[in-house]
Amino acid sequence: MSFPDDLREIWAPWRVEYFSLDKSRDFLTEAAQTSDDAAHLVVTRRKNTFLIINRFPYAVGHMMAVPYRKVADMADLTEAERLELWELAAHAQSLLRKTVNAQGFNIGLNIGKCAGAGVADHLHLHIVPRWEGDNNFMPVLADTRVMPDALARLYQKLIKAQED
């Protein structure tokens, strides 16, 4: 199938950030240590872990539960860290149901570079909201995802939902 020239590209200027990222920068450790949660999109903090919005999401509301300690494998986590990661996954589900009306979730880990881990040395649990029919023609035919909400606006909605 071919598309008319005017349909081959979708303007998404915010994506340029991803391509200009300093790949040596450890954004998860920076988020773990920051005092400016909003700038780093940190939604919730616990004793051993934190919940952050993925700046380059698979879907609107894609969040990650992350241990403060930089470890690459689940076996290296303490029992408290493992428990808090899963508690934050449940918390994220609750927030995403309230804020973006998520109907389902993909939750999981990519451990190791060959498994798709973008940050292989700092384990993180992905919480990706899903909706009935969310796999429309865009990703299938055009290899494009449409994000219908801005990160800053979503961040404010998640923070407000936690306060309610």
Q: What is the overall number of helices?
A: 6
Q: Write down the secondary-structure element order.
A: HHHEEEHEEHH
**Over all CA atoms, what is the radius of gyration?**
17 Å
Sheet/helix structural class: alpha+beta
Helix amount? 25-40%
Low-confidence stretches: none
Relative strand content: 15-25%
Structure, briefly:
The protein is α+β, with helices and mostly antiparallel strands and 164 residues long. It is built from 6 helices and 5 strands, in the order H-H-H-E-E-E-H-E-E-H-H.
Q: How would you characterize this protein structure?
A:
- Strand 1 and strand 2 form a beta hairpin.
- This protein is α+β, with helices and mostly antiparallel strands and about 160 residues long.
- The radius of gyration is 17 Å and the shape is globular.
- A five-stranded antiparallel beta sheet has the order 1-2-3-5-4, sandwiched between helices.
- About 35% of the residues lie in helices and about 15% in strands.
- Helix 4 packs across helix 6.
List keywords for this structure.
34% helix, alpha+beta, 5-stranded antiparallel beta sheet, 164 residues
Q: Which helices and strands, and how do they pair?
A:
Layout: H1 16-19, H2 27-33, H3 37-40, E1 42-45, E2 49-53, E3 63-67, H4 79-100, E4 104-109, E5 125-130, H5 137-141, H6 151-163
Antiparallel strand pairs: 1-2, 2-3, 3-5, 4-5
